[in-house]
Write the structure tokens for this entry.
Amino acid sequence: MVNYALQQLMNGICQGSIYALMAIGYTMIYGVVGLVSFSYGELVMIGGFGAYYTFVYSGNFFLGVIGGFMASAVWGIVLYILCYKRFLEAPRHISMICTFAFSMMTKNLAQIVFGSEPKAVPSVFENVTYTILGIRITTLQMIIISVVIVFAICFTLFLTKTRAGTMLRAVSQNKKASALMGINVQRTVLIGNGIGCALGGVAGVLLILYYASCYPNLGQLVGNKALTSTVLGGLVSIAGSALGGLSIGILENLGIMFIPVGFRDVITFIFLVIVLIFRPKGLFVRKGTR
């Protein structure tokens, strides 16, 4: 029983790492644009398909990651042009409704272009299983966790050590004051939205490798997981959102020790409701933080 629990914990850390990367990207979009996007799951799915076709034609893992990153970044630019650019000064619900319509459009376009049937993801590296202290760890799990850590570190350094990152942080705090300081707010919002979408695309690459399949409805559920992770982190905290995603992955995998596997997704939303009742600002937001 102990070994099984540790095995589920390991699986939860792996899956939670993917959720954490999605949540970081979602927090980036919310922090810079200031809106909750209903199309984030579909951007994750686009990244998955970008990687899938890169895998098919190149068979290279690193090119697949770049393909997923770029596919979601480009589609994120389309999202910005259609849903955000003209409505930055408009009431928030207008852009929010636009992202909902964009989500439906993207999903239906994907079904038309890629087909509705799940596609088996080709193997791009040898997935060896290692046993350490009775816990099975696969090459895929180690790669997923490593990729998430690398992107999280690079993203943190970008935000804290570069001029573009400083402008992004300034715009996320106050758009009008940033404009008065000479920052091009529209361009900065475009960059922030593109980076957030691209991180979702990388998460999509890891998801299709983890589940060994890619399909147009992939984004429907993972978009909800990204939103839930971000809410648990307080919406504006990147570290909190990452911890929220990791917590959900661990909770889901430990939960199936006691309930049927088919109910694993219910665990997430029950946990979210409980958190919103007792900690409406999120689990990882300190008192006094806005």
Summary: The radius of gyration is 19 Å. Residues 2-33 form the longest helix (32 residues). The CA atoms of residues 9 and 255 lie 10 Å apart.
